[in-house]
Amino acid sequence: MIASPRASVLLSGGLDSATVLAIARADGFECHCLTVDYGQRHRVEVDAAARVAAALGAASHRLVRLDLRAIGGSALTAGIEVPHGAEPSRSGVPVTYVPARNTVLLALLLGHAEVLGAADLFIGANAVDYSGYPDCRPAFLAAFTELANLATVAGAERGERFRVHAPLLELSKAEIIRRGVSLGIDYSLTHSCYDPTPDGGACGDCDACTLRRRGFVAAGVPDPTRYGQPKTE
Amino acid sequence: MIASPRASVLLSGGLDSATVLAIARADGFECHCLTVDYGQRHRVEVDAAARVAAALGAASHRLVRLDLRAIGGSALTAGIEVPHGAEPSRSGVPVTYVPARNTVLLALLLGHAEVLGAADLFIGANAVDYSGYPDCRPAFLAAFTELANLATVAGAERGERFRVHAPLLELSKAEIIRRGVSLGIDYSLTHSCYDPTPDGGACGDCDACTLRRRGFVAAGVPDPTRYGQPKTE
Questions:
Q1: Which pTM value belongs to this model?
Q2: Which of A25, A112, A170, A229 is most buried, taking the most CB atoms under 10 A from its CB?
Q3: Which of A134, A35, A25, A41 has the alpha carbon at shortest distance from A82?
């Protein structure tokens, strides 16, 4: 019996990365998940990641804490207000952009993969809904793959080739949801909201909630998201 | 009067990165330092970084905490013994190799630079004493520069070009020390030891101490390092 190849999967606890984990499992990988808590406001997302890893049969799940607030520059980590009720930005860079985020996350995922002996990295980067993020583009992912092969003992010394998989790259939110439902994901376990309510529910009208809600509508799938009670001022 | 261009300088508190900061200052940059505490054993190095930043006129100094122990795989972050009294490794990868370390550190430095509007990144990578580390090689640094220009809003949207400076890359330890002394660095402020004694002094015989001691001898410069009292078993 041949052992399954190992994959290192970046898991945020959101809808996208849960779908990536299900795809990696369906592709036959033994999946080792890494969640990075980079000081984002929504710690509830980290709890969601643990639920998702367990539900989708991950072989291991590790949490790395990284306090990106010391660098700042983003509404997700600094004291900048998250926009509510606005049309999700389709051009330009959203204020929720975290400087060099995917570079940092992929670098950590690469270290995780090297320790595990995994050559396959999975990330939920998406070029459709997040067109404003430069680090969600195919050219960025190709450049990171080049870097990975030079950065590591596995790549530079032993000639192993890393592969960065971004299976959601060209999918709309509705297509992601339909794919995940076909793989049996219970999306009520996932959390996408940038600004959860005090009871841990989704706010329903930040960019992430709006994209997610519209995705379920467009996919023709009932939305299992638990929306919370709004804050009282 | 033209403002000095900003540089983002990775500062560990060791001899090499202190020299890099002095070089960047001498090159006319307004230097903003970033120290990453990645759970290494020698927290005394983080204190050294603060002393060095102040002494060498850094414009700012930020500390990012990143718990790499969750990933493991290195004697500097996991429960692996640091070798003492052995000949420093000249080939092969030392056990003190941290998986994807320079990729992670440069990714954080890139985020720091983007927030500051700095296009120049300085790192103390060295290909002479650390020949076993793939992420200290020119090809790695060139690949990271490519990545930086694709990863960021500054690079991908505004066409700014990042530059990764590794001014120590081809220097021996003795050459680094002579360069630093010529720039007026007080190396007693710096800390290199992988395994400091309980009183915060240098152990004198780990790989880092051995390379450092030999460097001062070869440079013909008195060694100002404070060596500590050895541990009693």
A1: 0.87
A2: A112
A3: A41
Residues from chain A that touch B115, judged by Cβ atoms under 8 A, are: 71-73, 99
Q: In the numeric block, which tokens belong to residue A195?
A: 């600004």
**Ordered domains of chain B (ranges, CATH):** 6-187 (3.40.50.620)
The whole-angstrom separation of Cα B48 and Cα A33 is 35
Beta strands in chain A (DSSP E): 6-10, 30-37, 60-65, 120-122, 163-165
Residue A85 CB-density burial (10 A; 0-12 exposed, 13-18 middle, 19+ buried): exposed
H or E segment and range at residue B143: helix B138-151
Alpha-carbon distance of A202 to A27, in angstroms, equals 31
Give per-residue pLDDT as tens, B145-199: 999 999 987 788 788 889 999 999 999 999 999 999 999 999 999 998 888 888 8
User: Testing the interface with B: which of A69, A108, A131 to mutate, by most B Cβ within 10 A?
Assistant: A108
In whole angstroms, give the CA distance from residue B46 to residue B52.
10
Which of the residues B34, B36, B108 would you substitute to probe the A interface, choosing the one with the greatest number of A C-beta atoms within 10 Å? B108
Cβ pair A143:B150 closer than 8 A: yes
pLDDT band at A95 (very low <50, low <70, confident <90, very high): low
Pairs across A and B, CB distance < 8 A:
155
Cβ contact (<8 Å) for A112 and B71? yes
